[in-house]
Amino acid sequence: xxxxxxxxxxxxxxxxxxxxxxxxxxxxxxxxxxxxxxxxxxxxxxxxxxxxxxxxxxxxxxxxxxxxxxxxxxxxxxxxxxxxxxxxxxxxxxxxxxxxxxxxxxxxxxxxxxxxxxxxxxxxxxxxxxxxxxxxxxxxxxxxxxxxxxxxxxxxxxxxxxxxxxxxxxxxxxxxxxxxxxxxxxxxxxxxxxxxxxxxxxxxxxxxxxxxxxxxxxxxxxxxxxxxxxxxxxxxxxxxxxxxxxxxxxxxxxxxxxxxxxxxxxxxxxxxxxxxxxxxxxxxxxxxxxxxxxxxxxxxxxxxxxxxxxxxxxxxxxxxxxxxxxxxxxxxxxxxxxxxxxxxxxxxxxxxxxxxxxxxxxxxxxxxxxxxxxxxxxxxxxxxxxxxxxxxxxxxxxxxxxxxxxxxxxxxxxxxxxxxxxxxxxxxxxxxxxxxxxxxxxxxxxxxxxxxxxxxxxxxxxxxxxxxxxxxxxxxxxxxxxxxxxxxxxxxxxxxxxxxxxxxxxxxxxxxxxxxxxxxxxxxxxxxxxxxxxxxxxxxxxxxxxxxxxxxxxxxxxxxxxxxxxxxxxxxxxxxxxxxxxxxxxxxxxxxxxxxxx
Length: 598
Description:
Number of strands: 31
Largest sheet: 8 strands, mixed
CATH class of the largest domain: Mainly Alpha
CATH superfamily of the largest domain: Neutral Protease Domain 2
Shape: globular
Radius of gyration: 26 Å
Number of domains: 4
CATH topology of the largest domain: Neutral Protease, domain 2
Helix content: 25-40%
Structural class: alpha+beta
Strand order of the largest sheet: 5-4-8-2-1-12-15-14
Strand content: 25-35%
Number of helices: 15
């Protein structure tokens, strides 16, 4: 191995949440080596300024200090020096999420984007990292979990790991601590399941068996003949906390966070809502192994992690992944069709309840992810649509349309397989390329033999609601909207703030909006009766649609009074019910929920 870039990372002070990183560059740029830290992490489309967590940094060569000049918020340049330039720096790690780094006495976690400075011009060289144990007897039982290949370390042990280049290094998060560990094989490929955090009576055998079904179904979707996974090993890393939810995909692993109550309990065989949600999260991030980690928008091939990468295609890469995550639970037999269509109905209701869907298309939502979706505020329901949620419904609508118009000969599965064959299968072998925006629609037409331009104009680039009731009917799924018995409401979403009832969102055109109430107001009284975080619904239930109410609110430190006429809480309440008859509709529906024969 010629002149690899070498890192050492040590949990230097877990109590102070500090990692210490040493970066050795055997052959620095003679003009002055430049180093840079990513400003964002792939899969989370927001500038996060990870360099702000570098507490101090210094450079040396041959035992002598080398001056460092900061060029911008995340870039440094060392003065020209001889060989063997060494950087030493400390990183503050106190972000309990899947996006950055976290360290305390219970565990350590980091994404490479948060801790590993890139050596400009040497990103394509092999990168070696020595992961060391923190000092102290209390850490002797700690282990390491990562998808990085071992160089001079035993699997799950501290020691030296290797990445083929900088991209693989930062796309391989690391968990260290005392964790539960299990391994299964999906079509011959080892998959590790790592659970960090206190989880009483964790039913690991059930979790492993369920994940195996999901992983094998997804592998078979993309490679139905060979059943060949795109990685040699995969790692599910989950941090269990009191209350949390999130996931981030990587090329051969995923970092997850969940409530410990969402994980399966020994002796409880029913599928709880929390466990189903957790399996859906695992399914979502695993599907990204193909869709976005290897099949990529061209703007992400390669990533420019110094600034935003704009694409109108996140509805396909995130939205379609959201479509397939729950669908794969059904195809794996983990949920039945009634449970699956209940999840679809929940997504439909969530999309239809925001007026932002009439103002922003999913293509625009994709492009604006950096400034709107990942920076939501109190007005977001009135201004934006989720490319995750509506994107998943676009995937469903396209799947139903393709299946219906080709009489079952083609489906969205065929489109995903073509994307994989053409753009993803050889991506990390050096032959892959990103998907250009102009190529997507043509590929759909090519694979299906249909002309789908009007669909894309209306529902992807346009803001029309998807005709899902009409599309589901031939598949024997009944659509019913039960809002006709709506209760009176103010057209707001509230949040608990201590014992106060805080107005979190004011929905456009609703009674509160028309009366003058604003998000952020603290609702203190309705018709002279005190409002708390728990009693608003009970108070409103005493009135009828059309009744005039006097609302007292605090806006900042000023007491204000407004008059509001209650309106029917006209939020969609769609239910989807699979019908047992006729047999033809049941066969069509089952075709959607079963792996398609190839």
